[in-house]
Automatic annotation (TrEMBL):
PROSITE patterns reported in the protein's UniProt record: PTERIN_BINDING (PS50972)
Protein name (Swiss-Prot/TrEMBL): 5-methyltetrahydrofolate--homocysteine methyltransferase
One matching Pfam family: Pterin_bind
Source organism per UniProt: Selenihalanaerobacter shriftii
Domain of life: Bacteria
Signal peptide start-end: none
Length: 265
């Protein structure tokens, strides 16, 4: 399971002022905590700072990379911000995101190619947001085929099927699961990621829904998620699910986590 730590995001009340004030200690502490908890990538997102986003994202990339060893997921809808973030990043970054929208695809693709970055492929095209599994499968197929034709390796593509809240559509959970199943069967080796907590937006006891949905989605082929690595229960479920799904040779990772007291029942 590839965990993308979600906590450095200016949509969170405590993070926005820290980024505005360039509070490196706060940001670096949050980055280190996520890495130590098992995050494979640290997401950096300052999309709420619209006027200063390019400068702020560049600062975040530099500041976070000073104290951690894992790469970053550079997360922005703003091409200029992505450009600045990629230029500041050391090593192979994950770009969040490209879509099948014509203008967006044409703007983001050259950056991915230039920096040899991996990419989150968001299943949205010029017709808008997907409504069901068929929409997601169709757009994902278009994106994967085009990215591969443009020289992006399958292992560098992270398809995001766009999780939307079940509170507004009771069948959304099934739409996503069916899409994941079909995409991973059609394109063996492609990654599937998601903003996991979107599934529970607006509902009480959100952690329970997030935890249950992670296990369900992993059973269909999800192998990555943008989520909170400081949530010990969901991290434990990810470790246990990987083991039960045959992704943990000799249960080595599970045993290591248990011996390190990193599993929560």
């Amino acid at each position: 399971m590839i965990v993308i730590g979600e906590l450095i995001n200016t949509s969170r009340d405590e993070v926005e002022p820290a980024v505005k004030e360039r509070d490196a200690d706060f940001i670096q502490k949050l980055a280190k905590e996520q890495e130590e908890a098992g995050a494979d990538y640290i997401d950096v997102n300052c999309g709420t700072l619209i006027k200063e986003e390019p400068e702020a994202l560049e600062w975040l990339v530099t500041t976070v990379q000073e104290v951690i060893d894992v790469p970053l997921c550079i997360d922005s809808p703003n091409p200029e911000a992505l450009k600045r973030g990629l230029e500041a990043h050391e090593g192979k970054a994950l770009v969040n995101s490209i879509t099948a929208e014509g203008d967006r695809y044409d703007e983001i693709l050259p950056m991915i190619q230039e920096h040899d970055a991996a990419v989150v492929a968001l299943v949205m095209d010029d017709s808008g947001m997907p409504s069901d599994a068929d929409d997601r499968i169709r757009v994902a197929s278009e994106l994967i085929d085009n990215l591969r034709a443009d020289g992006i390796a399958l292992d560098d593509i992270y398809v995001d099927p766009i999780i939307q809240p079940i509170g507004t559509d009771g069948e959304m959970g099934l739409h996503i699961l069916n899409a994941i199943d079909e995409i991973t069967n059609k394109y063996e080796g492609v990654h599937i990621t998601c903003g996991l907590s979107n599934i529970s937006h607006g509902l009480p006891k959100r952690q329970l829904l997030n935890q249950a949905y992670l296990v369900l989605a992993m059973s269909k082929g999800l192998d990555s998620a943008i989520m909170d690595p400081l949530d010990e229960k969901i991290m434990s479920l990810a470790t246990a699910s990987d083991t039960l799904l045959g992704n943990d040779t000799y249960c080595a990772n599970y045993i290591k986590a248990a011996k390190s007291d990193k599993l929560t029942i």
